[in-house]
Amino acid sequence: MKPSREGYKPSYPAFIVVFTPGEFSSSLKAQKPFTVGEVMAPLEGLTKAPKAYTSVQCGPGPNDHIELNSDLVYINHSCDPNVAFDLSSPDSSDWHIRALKPLEKDTTLTYFYPSTEWDMDQPFKCECKSTNCLGNIQGAKYLSKAELDARIWINPWIKQLVADRDRKAPGS
Ligand SMILES: C[S@@+](CC[C@H](N)C(=O)[O-])C[C@H]1O[C@@H](n2cnc3c(N)ncnc32)[C@H](O)[C@@H]1O
């Protein structure tokens, strides 16, 4: 579920949704600056949910998906992201988003979807326009270890799933 434009009330004072015509064209902007490594927001109000284009994977299993139930669902993917979704702690109250770069006010927030997602419900042709854009984004399952290692932050279950895949089918 996504917060809608009608009666919109920001979930976090530090962020604002930019509603844009088109089903998947909206985005989330910072309302204040952040420093590198700063925790920008805790992930609160999460619910377990089936995999969907709005869900975030939180572990290696088929049922390890949560809905954010907040404006954070509007953070788009970039192959050169400025935000990390860190769900690495065994204690879910420590899960958070963190700045990967210095962020000015009004910066559009992005994260690298394969840093959480193994095999995505809704693949798409990436429009991030970064120099290291990977093209089709379908999840980490479809990327090489080198492509994942080139990113600043990847959650531990994705690293483990890649290691398991490459051990079973070396060189493929
Ligand atoms: C959770 S939504 C993110 C918010 C979305 N932009 C919206 O307005 O609902 C994920 C979807 O946004 C779109 N999206 C996110 N990042 C994108 C990107 N870099 N290039 C193209 N589409 C993107 C895709 O349709 C994707 O399935």
UniProtKB/TrEMBL annotation:
Record PROSITE patterns = SET
Stretches assigned to coiled coil: none
Q: Which SUPFAM superfamilies match?
A: SET domain
Every SET domain range: 13-114
Q: Which Gene3D superfamilies match?
A: SET domain
Q: Which InterPro entries match?
A: Flavunoidine_N-MTase (IPR053201), SET_dom (IPR001214), SET_dom_sf (IPR046341)
What protein does this entry describe? SET domain-containing protein
Which organism is this protein's natural source?
Hypsizygus marmoreus
